[in-house]
Amino acid sequence: xxxxxxxxxxxxxxxxxxxxxxxxxxxxxxxxxxxxxxxxxxxxxxxxxxxxxxxxxxxxxxxxxxxxxxxxxxxxxxxxxxxxxxxxxxxxxxxxxxxxxxxxxxxxxxxxxxxxxxxxxxxxxxxxxxxxxxxxxxxxxxxxxxxxxxxxxxx
Length: 155
Known about the structure:
This protein is α+β, with helices and mostly antiparallel strands. Helix content is 41%, strand content 15%. It has a three-stranded mixed sheet, with no helix packed on it.
């Protein structure tokens, strides 16, 4: 009887078809994002949660792997400033983000008018989108309410 081969959707095979090596670190990060409740995670948070499950990986390896997975299209990066990004599994569904600068909460949204305007601006400047990320930053309603609670009315 011939030896059993891995199923065609095995993570190593999927990663290799995308031009990656299929390292243990790549598999660990991709597996975490695939099984995490949908969300947006910093590299540090991904690293911490993978380490909590017993995987040994340097934080620098986590950053390198995230960049590789972004380049390969498995993961999307939400840039939040010069040296900070959040990462999420790339579902292929275009969307943008609202980010609270106080608590860090991230809400996803999609707006056809913004998409049309973004495409018109790109066309005007001859820009070909390399990635698609829009993160609008502000203070969410919960944080605003905590900072400025409503005043009691005088009776």
